[in-house]
Amino acid sequence: MVKTYMKKIKSLCVYCGSSKKGPAKHLLDAKELGYAISQRKIKLIYGGGQGGVMGAVADAAIENNGTVIGVIPEFLMHHEVGHSGITKLEIVSSMHERKARMAELSDGFIVLPGGLGTLEELFEIVTWKQLGLHDKPIIIINIDGYWDSLQKIIKNMSVTGYMRPENIELAIFVNKVDEIFSKLN
User: Fold this and answer.
1) Strands of the sheet with 43-46, listed across from one edge
2) SS3 for 2?
3) Of 11, 51, 159, 184, which one has the fewest beta carbons inside 10 Å?
4) How does pLDDT run along the chain (185 residues), one tens digit per residue?
5) pTM, full prediction
6) Are 139 and 111 in contact (CB under 8 A)?
């Protein structure tokens, strides 16, 4: 059973990779998402970097007159190169503060392709939902099957008894950007 969320979504947090080495298709889908978010007058909350999928989603939203808030720890300002062209860039002291602030600012979460940091953010926000700390939608965009293995692992956790079957739906998988908004509303 897929939940529908009655609260109007005013802001969405996007978790994604900052690496510039990923497939070009991921950048195109990130741009499509940034554009779609801005077209709906939804505020984009993200990790504050200007590279990779992260930069692509932010750039597309800004180019389409969207509001973009980045949250980045001070020590990553030079590593991920904090994005100076967004609406607001908040610099925080730690990764923990970054994740908490992004969650606080957001009405829902979208996950694009990324690496270990993206997985860590996803698992934390799903765990918070499982523990009842929030009831915000979490949507994973499974571009070209990127998250297929993750979906199998989650199902296996349930089959083997490490996760209740109903918790499989804590995060909703979609295959394309245009499927997101029907799941949010």
Assistant:
1) 88-92, 68-73, 43-46, 11-15, 109-111, 138-141, 172-174
2) coil
3) 159
4) 344 445 799 999 999 999 989 999 999 999 999 999 999 999 999 999 999 999 999 999 999 999 999 999 999 987 768 999 999 999 999 999 999 999 999 999 999 999 999 999 999 999 999 999 999 999 999 999 999 999 999 999 999 999 999 999 999 999 999 999 999 86
5) 0.93
6) yes
